[in-house]
Amino acid sequence: MAVPSNDAKSTKPTVPSEIKIIAGIEAFSGLVYLVNFLVLLSIIFSPILLFLCCLSFTIAYGLWRIKKWAWFLSLILSIFGAGSGIFVLAFTGVSESSLLGGAPMIILDVIVVIMLLSKDVRRAFRV
After folding, report:
1. Contacts of 38 (CB under 8 A, 6+ apart)
2. Which of 4, 6, 12, 45 holds its CA 20 to 30 A away from the CA of 54?
3. CB within 8 A of 86, min separation 6: which ones?
4. In whole angstroms, what is the distance from residue 43 CA to residue 56 CA?
């Protein structure tokens, strides 16, 4: 008796590890936005944080599923995040709070941009 082959599994594209890392970073960003939203909910309602939370989780899901729109959104938002973070640091000055809060986000955004532009990731997203 022949064992049926699982052709559906063999044709499913594998997700490169770089994409898993980027999706994890996006999901982490979503959690940070959610925590900030919940903390600020009692003080001030911020629909922007809730929107960014949902957007980050949506991008993480899209990246995990190898959706081209997620690649573009992640690239655009990471470039914008790194640029705005550098702009804020340049004009507000370097302090302990900016180094602990802003610098790690700038570094993560730059890492995401570099990883999104790598050959393997672009090949996976066909861009």
Report:
1. none
2. 12
3. 106
4. 23
